[in-house]
Specification:
Elements: E1 3-7, H1 12-23, E2 27-31, H2 40-49, E3 55-56, H3 63-72, E4 76-81, H4 88-93, H5 95-115, E5 120-126, H6 150-167, E6 174-180, E7 182-184, H7 203-211, E8 218-221, E9 233-234, E10 236-238, H8 239-254, E11 262-267, E12 273-274, H9 275-286, E13 292-295, H10 310-316, H11 324-337
Parallel strand pairs: 1-2, 1-4, 2-3, 4-5, 5-6, 6-11, 7-10, 8-13
Antiparallel strand pairs: 9-12
Helix pairs in contact: 1-2, 1-8, 3-5, 5-6, 7-11, 9-11
Length: about 350
Amino acid sequence: MNKILVTGGAGYIGSHTVVELSQAGYQPIIVDNFSNSEESALAGIEAILGHKVPTHRIDCADATALRGVFQAEPDIAGVIHFAAYKAVGESVQKPLAYFQNNVGSLLTLLAVMNEFNVESLVFSSSCTVYGIPDALPVTEATPTKPASSPYGRTKQMCEDIVNDVSAAPTNKLHTILLRYFNPIGAHESAKIGELPLGVPNNLVPFITQTAAGIREKLTINGGDYDTPDGTNIRDYIHVVDLAKAHIVAVQRLLDRKASDVVETFNVGTGNGNSVLEVVQTFEQATSQKLNYSIGPRRPGDVPAIYADATKAEQVLGFKTETSLADSLASAWKWQQTLK
């Protein structure tokens, strides 16, 4: 049974991936400092799997602590690196924290992986690396333009670091960069889901909290974009579908089937939906009426972006399975368990 270290494994995407890893026959090892996650996620994972998952409460930017995990967990076969700050708007307000955490944790991880001869890495990247694209949908060959936020720049820098390390003559690292679009929804059991600390930065938890009466209303950030209805367009992928992409990526690395030492894949549905479409689909899927209004634009937001997901389907054999309506219904089911 291959051990896979999952940094940020108690977070939103991390927790769902830990479940999928375990159910696929891997032994996940969680590393998380719980700065942006809740310990309740561990109970949810245990409730789904029927057993605890080994967990180390450390900051993976702390080399000594991370080295201790690799010593305590011998024979780690690969790493999935989620641990990062991820809010576009917050990164505009706190750029230094984003660079220190997102870039610093990757540098530390790569050094410790090299020390312990762990050669397989799945890196959590983002469609923000494309900046404001000239054409849609974006493919993996779409040029990366200046990012619209410090968060996006950290992901660009991390990709550059991985590529530079991989180009070194002594390199043994094999990496798959997964460029995520917008994960939403929750596990079908409603035992784990998106659990923002404080006011949500992401659209869907703000929608569900508004429907639940926790928020007075949803303010849509901008209604004057150059899109059909004036609101941002994004590619919304169910979080379990996204988690499954990691399982395929890990196995590809362990089987050494990659065509290069670094491979890059978009992980999205291939469809773009506007914020208003998401709101209306949520109302239809859940029979909940939302109180919402149009507000000013949010700094760092790109008007529209969605994936060409052809490469992931052709090379990885990965394709999303869950509709927007079902994804939103699962998010509402999860929200109802939190009341």
